Every structure is written in structure tokens, then in C-alpha cells.
Amino acid sequence: MKRQWHRNHLVRAFLCTWCVAVLLWCPAGQALAAEAFVIAASPSLKGLLERLSSGFEQAHPEVRVKLYFDSGLQLRQTIAGMENSMVGQYFIGSGPISLVAPGGDEVITRLQVKYYVLPGTKRTYAVDQLVLVVPESLVEAPGSIEALAQGSARLAIAEQARTRLGAQTADMLRASGMEESLKGRLDMATDGRGVIDHVLSGQADVGIIFGDQAVEQQQRLRVVGVISKGYKPTVHSMAMERYCPNRRLCEEFLTYIQSAEAQRLVRQAGYAVPAMSGR
Q1: Residue 86 has pLDDT above 60, yes or no
Q2: How far is CA 89 from CA 36, 85, 212, 236, in A?
Q3: Contact call for residues 36 and 65 (beta carbons, < 8 A)
Q4: CB neighbours (10 Å) of residue 135?
């Protein structure tokens, strides 16, 4: 069993190194024109990180940000495999990954315990938020969860046991005392995509999804309210990988993601800005 575990980590480390090498490859002329660094991140943050990377590149035309996506668990295993296997042994400042941006702070906390990210480099930059959405074509719609409770509209929500969206929505409904007033009008969907489908098909009048999901569907859905109380939102942070090849550049990016310009992009992507952005 131990040998199999070690072999799996060797394979993941090799694949990660190979994938990052492919990300960094570019024609010789471009390589001379721009310095690249890699952010290993959760796929759920793709839209947000693409916006932040583009904004950073505009302010730093000599830099190209490359994004490598993997799930939280796989991301942690990949970094652990790189750090602990013969395939992934690097000298300080020579590794393929510069920054780590998992979907939530739990993974970063685990990486900090193992010293896979540098102490003191964690920066918080975005927070998930729940929003009320309706079809873009709908003229009159409730503008808050309280207004919804007083009407007769059906509300589509995600299942509590299946998704983080469903768990946060359930917490919010309990905390707001709306469960009883919405009884018989709740339309249960599997996940966020299901909520969107139910609203667009007319099965429900209003839906609760994450803000970034609403941004992705802004041609078809309209946000009529933001829900900021009654649940514990997921906080997103970024930290420097121990073998970051260019610490100065990484520090610049970590400073940038808490700047006023970055906060504007965070809001555009459908997230809230942390009340006190910091470590």
C-alpha cells in the first residue's frame, strides 16, 4: 500500500511538472519579451483569476500569468508530491509553481502546516456571496429575501447535503426565519446549475446562486438582490509556494490582488471584497 501511495505521488508530481512546463512553453520571441509565472488554483476561481491576471499583465506588460487548475484535494496532493518525491525536488527559488489559490482557505491552512507555502504570504482577496436571480426578461421581481417571503413566488435552491451553495442557503433561511413563510414554495435543485435551469425553464420564479455564477449567466439572468447575512461565506486567499522562482514578482502580485483596481475586478466577477483584506 505504501509503495502504491508513493508511486501515485511520483506520477502526480511528474504530470504536474509536465503540465506546468507546457504552460510555460511559448515561441522564442515571446519568451524573451515576457516573464511567466504560474498560479495553481481551483477551477471554481477560473473567471476571477483570469480577470486578475489580465489586470496585472496590463500593469506589468513584461509579465505573463499562467493558470494551472486542479481540485483542492488534488492540488494539495500535487504540491505534496512535488515537494516530497525525487521527481519534484527543487532548490529554493527554482520550482514551477509561484502562487497557490485554492477554492477556500482550508487547503492553504493545510499547506501552511506542512510548510508547502511560505509563512506570512497569505493574502485574502475575495469572498463568495449569495444572490437572488430572476430571468432577464422578468420586469417585476422581489428585491430581497424578505420581499420574496411576503409574496407568492417559488424559490429555487440547491440541495443542502450535496453542495456548499445548498448548505449556505439553508443556513441563511434558518437564520432569517424564512423557512416557514416559504414552506410549499421551495423548489429543490441538485446544484447551482440546476437552480439556473429551474429559473430559466419557469419551474421557479426566483433562484439563489453564487454571485460568480450569476455573472456567467448575465445574458439570461438578472441579479435582483444580494444576501449578505445569515451564513458563513467562503473566503478566498492566495499564498506563495515555497519554491516560488521569483519572490519579488510574487509579492507584487499578492500586493496587487488587494489593490483598489483588483477589488473592482473582484466585484465585477460576482464576489464580495473582504471587509479587512489581509493575512
Answers
A1: no
A2: 21, 6, 37, 28
A3: yes
A4: 16
For the whole model, what pTM was predicted?
Answer: 0.81
What the block records as the C-alpha cell of 194 is 440546476
DSSP secondary structure string, the chain?
Answer: -HHHHHHHHHHHHHHHHHHHHHHH---HHHHHH-EEEEEEE-GGGHHHHHHHHHHHHHH-TTEEEEEEE--HHHHHHHHHHHHHSSTT---TT--S--EEE-SSHHHHHHHHHTTSB-TT--EEEEE--EEEEEETT--S--SSHHHHHHS---EEEE-TTT-HHHHHHHHHHHHHT-TTTTTT-EEEESSHHHHHHHHHHTS-SEEEEEHHHHHHTTTTEEEEEEE-SSS-PPEEEEEEBTT-S-HHHHHHHHHHTTSHHHHHHHHHTTPBPPTT---
Mean pLDDT over residues 103-132, rounded? 90
pLDDT confidence of 44, banded at 50, 70, 90? very high
- Would you place residue 5 in the very low, low, confident or very high pLDDT band (cuts 50, 70, 90)? very low
Q: Average pLDDT of the chain?
A: 83
* Sheet order of strands, 130-135 included: 186-189, 155-158, 206-210, 130-135, 221-227
